[in-house]
Amino acid sequence: MRKKELYDRVIAYFEQAMPVAETELHYEDPFQLLVAVILSAQCTDKRVNMITPALFRDFPTAEAMAATTPDVVYEYIRSVSYPNNKAKHLVGMAQMLVRDYGGQVPDTLEELVKLPGVGRKTANVIQSVVFHKAAMAVDTHVFRVSHRIGLVPGTCTTPLATEKHLTRYIPEALIPKAHHWLILHGRYVCTARNPKCDKCGLNGICQASLKAKI
Questions:
Q1: How does pLDDT run across 70-107, given as a tens digit for each residue?
Q2: N or C: which end of the chain has fewer CB within 10 A?
Q3: Binding site for [4Fe-4S] cluster: what residues are annotated?
Q4: Helix, coil or strand: residue 214
């Protein structure tokens, strides 16, 4: 199957099976989403959603979080992975937002990655979800699923290479939604250890499933 045909068929499937695809993190504004995404690194969205209500209640803005300390924030987020580092990142991020951006979340990759705790993946999530830009955040789910389906070749050994390959073939207008398609598919169907191939609508299109039948 040619690459374009594979992409067309995968996109057609997701358009029908998952017409609404969006982040499962709970937030009310760009600052809260940025906090939630930083907390979600190597942690489940479910866990993050359990702790953010209290955190957002007491620190609803960058100004409020910038005025506290990592030790205080730690008590709110202690049940997530790497709470010490994330507490430092959150306060440092909030202080930089206040100092350099008037308390507002910037909308470019270059500015976002300057913030403590924000790498390319997190920056792309913010660009995509908040600012509706054609940015593809590649987390472990996206990386795994795109390789299994055959959307990217084995030579794409890094998240950046995977991101560039996906954005080359996915129509620009669909990239923000496609990011969530791949994440949610990886989270609930194409799981790491026991993928539910028998229940997958891509069975027979997915390159991994075709190889398994040989």
A1: 999 999 999 999 999 999 999 999 999 999 999 999 99
A2: C
A3: 190, 197, 200, 206
A4: coil
